[in-house]
Amino acid sequence: MLSGDIPPNQTIYIKNLNEKVKKEELKRSLYALFSQYGRILDVVALKTDKLRGQAWVVFSEVTAASNAVRQMQSFPFYDKPMRIQYAKTKSDCVAKVDGTYAPREKKKKQEEKAAEKRRKAEDAHQAASAANGPAVQNNGVHAASRQGRTTQEAVPPNNILFIQNLPHETTSMMLQILFQQYPGFREVRMIDSKPGIAFVEFSDDVHSSVGMQALQGFKITPHNPMAIAYAKK
DNA sequence: AGCACA
User: Fold this and answer.
1) Is residue A116 part of a domain?
2) In this structure, what CATH number is given to the domain that contains residue A74?
3) Helix, strand, coil proportions of chain A in percent (round to 5)?
4) What domain range includes position A179?
5) Do A97 and A145 share a structural domain?
6) Contacts of A191 (CB under 8 A, 6+ apart)
7) Predicted confidence (pLDDT) per residue in A9-62, tens digit
């Protein structure tokens, strides 16, 4: 199917999302997954009856949105293939930047508001998500040495990767979504008593290397470029 | 299936 006759927009509209995922995790994962296509200005997701299972990701460039629509079409995200289109209208955060923003009328939106408020009482904290750039190049040395691993012990390639400097709210599902984009992915392992690190297993070290290069320095939140090394045997 | 942003 074509993108449904909707003209290109710097915001993409995603549906068929797994409705069991909590809103904040959903937004963080979408942010992490789509930031590979360009700078993201905002991610909007509501869990109201009408809007659950859908989200909007606002890019700073239309070209980034176009690439995301094409390349992430049907991407398995929390076990469901994403359905992606351009958004039908301009996002508020874009309108605010180009000066065309006008607060809209409030009709039956008051109930939605109330329902939202109740739900989000659980989630008090949220990652400041609008300032992330493309993943930085980071060879992992800094974070690695800070954690006590010295640079001179050269760790040989391994099919298992050792990830450090993750934000503590990272889940294994979030990492799976990122790493399963690369062939040979097998599984993510995290240890409850050791937040901030993870092991990601690939079928062999050729595939693990590709995944490492691709996601080295990738930021799940603006302050946590992930440091990826080969795990020690 | 479903196009919002408080």
Assistant:
1) no
2) 3.30.70.330
3) 30, 20, 50
4) 140-230
5) no
6) A197
7) 999 999 999 999 999 989 988 998 898 889 999 999 999 999 999 999 999 999
Nucleotide nearest to A120 (CA to C1'): B6
Q: Is residue A120 in some structural domain? A: no
Q: Where are the alpha helices (DSSP H) in A35-105?
A: 62-71, 92-98
Identify the band that residue A226 occupies on the pLDDT scale cut at 50, 70 and 90.
very high
A58 closest-nt by C1' vs CA: B5
C-alpha to C-alpha distance for A31 and A76, rounded to whole angstroms = 15
Note the pTM of the prediction, 2 decimals.
Answer: 0.66
Residue A112 Cβ < 7 Å to strand B: yes
Phi (first) and psi of residue A37, to 5 degrees: -95, -10
Which is nearest to A126 in space by CA: A44, A11, A194, A27? A27
Contact positions of strand B to protein Cβ (< 7 A): 1-6
CA A22 to the chain's CA centroid = 14
Nearest to A22 by CA among A142, A134, A124, A120: A120
